[in-house]
């Protein structure tokens, strides 16, 4: 889980890169869940929330 203070300290390029890696991980977890292979079910929710945090900070930085 990524802390909001860490996210706010990142540059927009770093945030975009982090967002891309989280979306890839989310896709892989979704695929594992569909085939019944997912081990860490709590990670799905954590990734969703981290993606939302990053998008929120990106939008705030774009507005500023």
From TrEMBL:
Superkingdom field: Bacteria
Any one GO cellular component localisation term in the record: cytosolic large ribosomal subunit
This protein's UniProt keywords: Ribonucleoprotein, Ribosomal protein
One Pfam family linked to the record: Ribosomal_L29
Gene3D superfamilies, A to Z: 1.10.287.310
UniProt GO molecular function: structural constituent of ribosome
Example GO biological process: translation
Keyword Glycoprotein recorded: no
NCBIfam families per the UniProt record, alphabetical: L29
PANTHER family: 60S RIBOSOMAL PROTEIN L35/50S RIBOSOMAL PROTEIN L29, LARGE RIBOSOMAL SUBUNIT PROTEIN UL29C
Family membership: Belongs to the universal ribosomal protein uL29 family.
Designated name of the protein: Large ribosomal subunit protein uL29
Organism placement in taxonomy: Bacteria, Pseudomonadati, Pseudomonadota, Alphaproteobacteria, Caulobacterales
Gene: rpmC
């Amino acid at each position: 889980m990524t802390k909001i203070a860490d996210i706010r300290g990142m540059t927009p390029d770093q945030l975009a890169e982090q967002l891309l890696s989280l979306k890839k991980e989310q896709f892989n977890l979704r695929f594992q869940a569909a085939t019944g292979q997912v081990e860490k079910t709590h990670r799905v929710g954590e990734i969703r929330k981290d993606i939302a945090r990053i998008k929120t900070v990106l939008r705030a930085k774009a507005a500023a």
